[in-house]
Amino acid sequence: MSPLHVVEPGEDVLKTRMIEASARIESTLNALLPLKGGPEARLYQAMRYATMNGGKRLRPFLVLSSAALFGVRESCALRVAAAVECVHCYSLVHDDLPAMDDDDVRRGKPSTHRAYDEATAILVGDGLLTLAFETLANPETHEDPLIRANLSLALAKAAGARGMVGGQMIDMLAPQALQGDGDIGAITRLQRLKTGELFAFACESGAILGRGDNTRRQALHAFAHDMGLAFQIADDLLDLEGREEEVGKALRKDVRAGKATFVSILGIERARDQAQLLVDQAVQHLEIFDERADNLRMVARFVVDRRA
Amino acid sequence: MSPLHVVEPGEDVLKTRMIEASARIESTLNALLPLKGGPEARLYQAMRYATMNGGKRLRPFLVLSSAALFGVRESCALRVAAAVECVHCYSLVHDDLPAMDDDDVRRGKPSTHRAYDEATAILVGDGLLTLAFETLANPETHEDPLIRANLSLALAKAAGARGMVGGQMIDMLAPQALQGDGDIGAITRLQRLKTGELFAFACESGAILGRGDNTRRQALHAFAHDMGLAFQIADDLLDLEGREEEVGKALRKDVRAGKATFVSILGIERARDQAQLLVDQAVQHLEIFDERADNLRMVARFVVDRRA
User: Fold this and answer.
1) Is residue A21 part of a domain?
2) Is residue B3 in a domain?
3) In-domain check, residue B202
4) Which of B5, B78, B115, B151 counts the most CB atoms within 10 A of its CB?
5) How many structural domains is chain B composed of?
6) Percent of chain B having pLDDT more than 70?
7) What is the model's pLDDT at position B5?
8) Containing H/E element for A106?
9) Gyration radius of chain A's alpha carbons
10) Is B41's Cβ below 8 Å from some Cβ in A?
11) In A, residues 125-164, which contact B (CB 8 Å cutoff)?
12) How crowded is the C-beta side of A238, counted as CA atoms within 13 Å?
């Protein structure tokens, strides 16, 4: 971030791998969301607009990296990765709605309700969420129905009222609940629900697909939560210090809303230290894995150094 | 409907059975949606508000009636019934939003976004849809993971862009697409997607749970589509002839919007004849079943004679 910022070993390697993975995710999403004619053409166009828009594909990359630890066939992992991205993109579409965060720009383009309309955006979100579960339950994702059912159950828990949706509800109430000097515990819990549980699903999904033992699954879970929190602190820092053109969405919203964040409570320096501490901790959870976990190790380092 | 309307044999029996079933559905939903404390209390309250509100529970009743044909344990069928009701209720919450149909009243009470707010209503819908898949994938629903995965896949297909969400999209575009003298084919397709596919899932779910053969599953599918279309024609008639206090929602909206419906195209008498024809056809599909299918037979007769 500073002019003295030293390129981490592996940062270029990671970028290359993420770009390669993005292309494979894109083509999986393309297959799941065919262009349609007829009266529902608009819905499919808008679903494609909301998903195939050059996101970083961080969560899908976590799925692929986790799957690689257990020797999972990539065709299976790609479908799970696409399902996670559908859930992530649906949550962005709904969160951007006027009644929610009211954001007009996403990934540098008009958000879905601006490019289409609100009704279409609501239906796009509903359709993408449903598509995620359709994808996981489909035998093409894995021949073992127990694995398909376990994936569906774990994703539903991560995405629903006890996970992402619950976190978004708390965030909507936050101007009252977390105003000014909200405590770190409450914010940590909010972020764990709002973004952490889906990260955790992404990181654990390889273990579900590859029938990994409990120790490995728990290690990935712990990695995901520390990495996810570091990601969120970096997000708060970006919100404060980033350039809108680079980040691709409206910034400084939390400050204007007087919302408590990690940075508003800890201050910039301590927040940055805390993020680094979480990254170190995240990487330590991966000790039981060999060099095949290097992608995950690099991701953890990357998330605190990103500019977008 | 007319003063000479003769009570169908079985109408009272059906009412009693539906009320009994409603109580069991209600207690299953109650267990799936516990009251919570903490900052997300509002979300759970609103999810309960949107579901535990005295609906007719027609779709859950279809699930239980279908399951009874295959000797499925009721504890399993009730969870599938609750999942279907979660999907139905989520669709009502989102459809009622200002950006969609903008309805202030639902089942005689303020719709969810009026009782809470729009952001909460969006999240309630998202949470209920996710809960449906969480419920189906949970081993408590069935010990065989193949059945759980098949249920999830079938529900996702029925609810998603190729089903309910697609139908709602077409309906939103309908003022342009089906204005004035839209054709019966287009309306039939719209309704098949918007309401028919979820009816079909409800009716087939017993066959999935009870490993019914293809002939039986297809018979239930055909029954559901004819019955669902009759249901929709009855809905159009109610919209024209019903009393808002009895029906529990705003009426005469289609006429005001100049939207083509079965009734606007066929006229009242022919629409009523058509509904009756569909009911007879629906009941014929059940010929391969014995008297255990009487609930389904009665439902088919009931849907065209309802006042709410």
Assistant:
1) yes
2) no
3) yes
4) B151
5) 1
6) 90
7) 42
8) strand A105-106
9) 19
10) no
11) 125-127, 129-131, 133-134, 136-139, 144-146, 148-150, 152-153, 155-157, 159-161
12) 20
